[in-house]
Amino acid sequence: MRQTLVMGNWKLNGSKSMVAELINALKAPATDTPSVAVAVCPPVLFLGQAQALLTDSNIALGAQDADIHAQGAFTGEHSPAMYSEFGVHYVLVGHSERRTLHGESDAMVAAKFAAVQQAGLVPVLCIGETLEQFEEGETRAVVERQLHEVIAHSGIDALANAVIAYEPVWAIGTGKTATPEIAQGVHAAIRAFLAEQNADVAAGVQILYGGSVKGASAAGLFAMDDIDGALVGGAALQADEFAAIIRAGA
Ligand code: PGA
């Protein structure tokens, strides 16, 4: 039985006061719904503050990206090993904004996935097609290619200690959520693709949906067999909206 996981990706948003307000407001909804796993991914600068605020809560901490190196002459980067010191459990890898705005290739994403796991953290592998690819009917080919690169690098068993987030690029920050039926179709295809290589890994891995998820749309998505939670951007910055998504997973 896969646990529902609701994860907030704050992207480049926040301030010290906002971090305190938001995390404090999320503690009660997270405690009231123990069947739902909850995580937040604030900007790196706020991880220490978030770690302190999350003591005695059941909300996990995540980071939005990681370098592939543990340390060294890599100006501006942050390593998975450093995240461990701040109580980070999850690390997003391959978010579409990293792939498009920072030119991250499938190979780089696969290397990041491996580096995160080697540090003992759980990678959240973000995959998904662009609007053009969606309209051309290439969705499955795209997500399979993105998955293949990680499996070729780390092996299928590595997916047993990871989370997948299917995020159609055309639905991120656009207000256009894929319908539950469209999302379910892709999630089922992802699981079937993994099952060709290891049925147990395929059955166990949590596959989150991401892309304009709101309190009002979450329940319909979570009702689908292969949708195991949500990776939430914009709505994760509003305590009431994120709390509604958490409750929809209970
Ligand atoms: P959104 O972002 O919910 O604002 O569409 C989701 C994401 O980028 O993870």
Describe, in plain words, how this protein is organized in 3D.
- By secondary structure, this protein is of the alpha/beta class.
- The chain has a single domain (4-248), classed as Aldolase class I (TIM Barrel, Alpha-Beta Barrel), CATH 3.20.20.
- 44% of the residues lie in helices and 17% in strands.
- The chain has eleven helices and eight strands.
- The protein has helices spanning 16-32, 47-54, 80-85, 96-101, 106-118, 131-135, 139-154, 180-195, 199-204, 215-222, 239-248; strands at 4-9, 36-41, 59-63, 88-93, 122-127, 163-166, 206-210, 229-232.
- Strands 1-2-3-4-5-6-7-8 form an eight-stranded parallel beta barrel, surrounded by seven helices.
- β7, α10 and β8 form a beta-alpha-beta unit.
- α1 runs parallel beside α2.
- It is globular, with a radius of gyration of 17 Å.
- The two termini are 14 Å apart.
- The model has no long low-confidence stretch (mean pLDDT 97).
- 2-phosphoglycolic acid (PGA) is lined by residues 9, 167, 172-173, 210-213, 231-235.
- The site of 2-phosphoglycolic acid has 13 residues, from β8.
